[in-house]
């Protein structure tokens, strides 16, 4: 009965989906495309911007090209660089205050998913100054135009530059949740691979696995469309062919460019087709122990795919074919198994562990509850799991 309720709920969203505004960001793409941004902002009449970033980005000097360009065009800016990994409500409130004090006209999220999501949170607060972040948790609670929102990803993972989501953490309750609204799809995104060249190997690997998780969860879910499936397939292929190279040879610009594209495509796929239990569980690890999001997904992904069993054999077999790890004689179940094995191997090759040693037994009941409520009834997962199943999964991923 509960499963039927979930499926009806998901069907309602799938039926309504074609009527939503699935705008795509205007893209500036390619090597050094960042320098095209300031003249474009000028052209659009945006004279002052809040730049949301983090200390890591500033310390490697990544921001300088942008700041020089803005100064060159006489565009005022103010920088908020206090964003933490798994950005908090406090981050958003501080940056929002800065936005108001300096009377900006646009917001730039510059960094990985954390600064981009923090920028989206500020955009939501500008659109709805009377509504707190917790009040905007969930689906379609913003519904008012935001100021111009620009995303400049420096990791190739979250795809946040293409999505409706801002994933926020509450530092007091350790809850991590999404605000999902079409107004939070950025208006403009800059995909400049030069920005990802200095990404350290362990962040390259884990953020890349986040993108892979988006592509796979969207592909095996029940709300995919022809377009999202195509994006997922392209992303999976690009990731299997480029992630290890980007990890082991960070200066390979082709591999960097392909990972950036894959991350964007996976974002386009999952923003419409949703994610699944991998993300629901990963968010609890981020909220409780600040485990980096990509690392959490990388570890959890093979366990959940195995747990889904037969329900995912067909789509995983299709992805295995695309990656080129099957033979014509392989049965569907064998192809699916090979695909999961290939994910485990990729993790091993990139030194990603296969369990969490931070996971505490006493936290499990709350984590199970939160993961359950995040995923059900919203995520159109291939197989609906109950709390007992989730508990089993937490036991498996615990060191
Ligand atoms: N909105 C969405 O659709 C969406 C989707 C998936 C994940 N997320 C969220 O995004 C966040 C994770 O983002 P992330 O994985 O991109 O990591 P991140 O933004 O947290 O950054 C991780 C670290 O990498 C550093 N870094 C980033 N780019 C760098 C570069 N080019 N060179 C050197 N260092 C660099 C940062 O300073 C930081 O220390 C999580 O909160 C996650 O929940 C959002
Ligand atoms: Fe993710």
Share of residues in helices: 40-55%
> What is the name of the CATH class of the largest domain?
Mainly Alpha
What fold name stands as the CATH topology of the largest domain?
Dehydroquinate synthase-like, alpha domain
Shape: globular
Give the strand order, joined by hyphens, for the main sheet.
1-9-6-4-2-3
The CATH architecture designation of the largest domain is Up-down Bundle
**Domain module tally:** 2
Separation of the first and last Cα atoms? 35 Å
Write structural notes for this entry.
- This protein has 399 residues and is an alpha/beta fold.
- It has helices at 2-16, 37-43, 55-59, 64-72, 89-101, 113-127, 201-220, 226-248, 253-273, 277-289, 293-308, 313-323, 332-349, 364-375, 387-397, and strands spanning 26-29, 48-52, 76-80, 106-111, 138-139, 149-153, 165-170, 175-180, 188-191.
- It has a six-stranded parallel β-sheet, with helices on both faces. The protein has a three-stranded mixed β-sheet with strand order 5-8-7.
- α12 (313-323) packs across α13 (332-349) and α14 packs across α15 (387-397).
- It is globular and about 60 Å long.
- Nicotinamide-adenine-dinucleotide binds next to α3, α6, β7, α7 and α11.
């Amino acid at each position: 009965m509960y499963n039927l309720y979930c499926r009806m709920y998901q069907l309602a969203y799938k039926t309504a989906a074609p009527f939503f505004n699935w705008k795509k960001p205007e893209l500036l793409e390619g090597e050094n495309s960042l320098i095209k941004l300031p003249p474009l902002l000028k052209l659009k009449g945006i004279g002052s911007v809040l730049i949301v970033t983090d200390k890591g980005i500033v310390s490697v000097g990544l921001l300088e090209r942008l700041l020089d360009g803005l100064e060159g065009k006489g565009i005022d800016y103010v920088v908020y660089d206090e964003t933490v990994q798994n950005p908090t409500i406090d981050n958003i409130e501080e940056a929002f205050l800065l936005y108001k004090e300096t009377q900006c006209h646009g917001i730039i999220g510059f960094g990985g998913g954390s600064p981009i999501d923090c920028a989206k949170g500020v955009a939501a607060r500008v659109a709805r100054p009377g509504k707190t972040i917790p009040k905007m948790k969930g689906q379609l609670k913003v519904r008012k135009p935001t100021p111009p929102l620009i995303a400049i990803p420096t990791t190739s993972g979250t795809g946040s530059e293409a999505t409706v989501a801002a994933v926020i953490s509450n530092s007091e309750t350790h809850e991590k949740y999404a605000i999902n609204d079409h107004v939070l799809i950025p208006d403009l995104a800059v995909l400049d691979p030069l920005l990802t060249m200095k990404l350290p190997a362990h962040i390259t690997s884990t953020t890349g696995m986040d993108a892979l998780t988006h592509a796979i969860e969207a592909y095996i879910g029940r709300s995919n469309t022809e377009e999202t499936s195509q994006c997922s397939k392209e992303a999976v292929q690009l990731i299997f062919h480029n992630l290890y190279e980007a990890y082991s040879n960070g200066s390979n610009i082709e591999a960097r460019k392909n990972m950036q594209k894959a991350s964007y495509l996976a974002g386009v796929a999952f923003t419409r087709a949703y994610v699944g239990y991998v993300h629901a569980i990963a968010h609890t690890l981020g909220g409780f122990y600040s485990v980096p999001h990509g690392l959490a997904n990388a570890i959890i992904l093979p366990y959940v795919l195995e747990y889904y069993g037969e329900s995912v054999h067909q789509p995983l077999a299709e992805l295995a074919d695309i990656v080129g790890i099957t033979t014509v004689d392989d049965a569907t179940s064998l192809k699916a198994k090979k695909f999961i094995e290939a994910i485990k191997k990729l993790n091993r090759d990139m030194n990603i562990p296969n369990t969490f040693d931070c996971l505490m037994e006493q936290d499990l009941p709350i984590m199970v509850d939160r993961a359950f409520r995040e995923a059900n009834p919203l995520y159109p997962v291939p197989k609906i799991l109950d709390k007992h199943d989730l508990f089993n999964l937490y036991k498996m991923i615990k060191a």
